[in-house]
Specification:
Blueprint (H helix, E strand, L loop, with lengths): L1 E7 L7 H12 L3 E7 L5 H10 L4 E4 L4 H7 L2 E2 L1 H6 L4 E5 L2 E5 L2 H11 L8 E5 L3 H9 L5 E6 L2 H8 L6 E4 L3 H5 L5 E4 L22 E4 L8 H8 L4 E3 L2 H16 L5 H11 L1
Parallel strand pairs: 1-2, 1-3, 4-6, 7-8, 7-10, 8-9, 10-11, 11-12
Antiparallel strand pairs: 3-5, 5-6
Helix pairs in contact: 1-10, 5-6, 5-10, 10-11
Amino acid sequence: MIRAGVIGHPIGHSLSPRIHNQWFEDVGIEGEYQAIDAAPEAFEATVHEMADEGWAGLNVTIPHKASALELATERSAAAEIVGAANLLTFRDSDIIADNSDVFGFEMSLDEIGVSKSPRHAVVLGAGGAAGAVLYALRSAEKLTLLNRTRERAEALASRFGNIEVRDWDERDAVVAEAPDLLVNTTSLGMAGQPPLELTFGDEAPAAAVDIVYGKEPTPFLRMAERAGIEKRTDGLPMLVFQAAPSFEAWTSCFPDAGRTLSELREEL
């Protein structure tokens, strides 16, 4: 029996158990994947408990990704640079940290036919997921980052060394430069959050990605649609495809993530 799960706070909304338990069934492996709610003060003890009980590993979500990197005994290059881990694998006495959000975002670009080496990409927000997006886009000719708190954007950009940081109130001017790709990693516009105030000019970005997903298009994607941006996607592909390297790390089997994405699109 392979035991794994996703740890976060809160965690009840997670689709990860639905995804991984289906994959266990698909490949014919006896396994169980659970959602584990752990407050920040209980995170480290909970991870060690799972490791001691013989679990294969954990996916990690808000608000624990930075803490997951800190407690790991081994870290991938991607996790180190991003400064966050969403995948922990338990092997012997080691806790191995990786960041499969990078792969998830790269595959979401493939879904809409966008290169991960664009001429100019713009990223809104400097939270935990933004680091993975920036890492995936590190070969862009020009990469611009904007955040409501400039200091946080500068701290994140310093991990990469080739990122232009602009003030949040310059976002309309930056979008007016018609970048190849505009990525929203903020929660602005969602329930309980302030609106995302953004104006698209005559020359809109060629593609738009929002890392948030839901049954309805996000406010950001509705704005992108009104601006005539045809290449756009929400965060569901990133969610599904980031799960695939986790499943492979624990089972040595790479799942049919594309089929799972299609199924979830229909369910949502």
